[in-house]
Amino acid sequence: MTTELSRLSLNLYPWQQDQWQHVNHMMQQQRLPHALIIGGVPGIGKLTFAKRLAAALLCQKLINGNACNQCKSCQLLAANSHPDYKLMQPEEAGKAILVDQVRNIQHAMATTAQQGGARVVIINGASDLNLNAANALLKQLEEPGDKSYFLLLHQWPKAVLPTVRSRCQLLDITIPAPEQALKWLQHQLPDDDNSNDIAEKLLQLAKGGPLKALQLHASKAHELRHQMLVQLTAILRGKESAVQVAQSWHKEPLEQMFSWWIEWLNDLIKLKMTGNTSHLANPDIVKLLQAVAKRSNIIATYSLLEKLTQQLNFINQRRNLNTQLVCEELLDQWYLLVRSGT
């Protein structure tokens, strides 16, 4: 049976080769830690990497450090029915990992491996563990048992609780070189969108993560970004109100939108401080930034940046927010920015 899991266990992305060799060497030397945090920006294939590692740890007949994809253990894994493999992640997108989810795996990890080998848990979202879930996990990390492995995936720049982080070894999957990322992405895009300009813009929006860039293309994030800029400009010109725009924003992916907005404010501060446009992260909106820079106050700009960063942190912490009210307050502050003077 060919499944998504079996396919992923066979393939690494080109930019993951060095990290895989490092992990493979630790496996051969029997020095692989029982708890490993695999970190990096979104969109570089951390889950793919972790699944490949899980497959190798569970395989009964390794071939050059890789899963054979033929033994009984590999077949069970490919059928998503391996009793010694667990994948834990939020039950809904944007939600936290709950303590009951951690407790559900504790019994499985406390018993003898049914296939006589390793037991592996992938936690897809180490930053998504709520406090109770993290505390429940600590005992497992401290006393994992023989041949028990926890692979925790961590999305930069979200924070992992220090108590969890201190019990794990860190392995970061680095962002691929721009040339490598661009080449890979161009091969994935449809012919009508396969241009340097589109691919480069997508990679910029994805902070260099090729898979994230591909996801942004599929979700038409570049169109959302454009619409967001149009609406912010309309507010400054008095053509739309903060309330009107907030009504359309609050159901959108605010984590992504606020991240963009923070970038723009950082560029605005650079521009106000230096007047130099050569080091802006978003050169495509330089005219808007220049217009706002001429009419805004640096203190008011920092105030908006601080408020926006705080709200993004609240979103990352999975707090229950009145998103429409949050958007209204931020957009009001944006409207007042160009009326704050220089």
The strand order across the widest sheet is 2-3-4-1-5
Q: Unreliable segments (pLDDT under 50, ≥5 consecutive)? A: 1-9
CATH topology of the largest domain: Rossmann fold
- Overall number of domains: 3
Largest sheet: 5 strands, parallel
Tell me the number of strands.
5
Euclidean distance between termini CA atoms: 66 Å
DSSP helix count?
16
The percent of residues in helical segments reads 40-55%
Query: Could you report the average pLDDT, rounded to the nearest whole number?
Result: 90
Shape category: elongated
* Backbone CA Rg: 23 Å
Structural class: alpha/beta
Task: Explain what you see.
This protein has 342 residues and is of the alpha/beta class. It folds into three domains: 169 residues, 3-Layer(aba) Sandwich (Rossmann fold); 33 residues, no CATH class; 119 residues, Zinc Finger, Delta Prime, domain 3 (Up-down Bundle). A five-stranded parallel β-sheet has the order 2-3-4-1-5, with helices on both faces. Strand 3, helix 6 and strand 4 form a beta-alpha-beta unit. Helix 5 packs parallel to helix 6. The longest helix has 21 residues. The radius of gyration is 23 Å and the shape is elongated. The N and C termini lie far apart (66 Å).
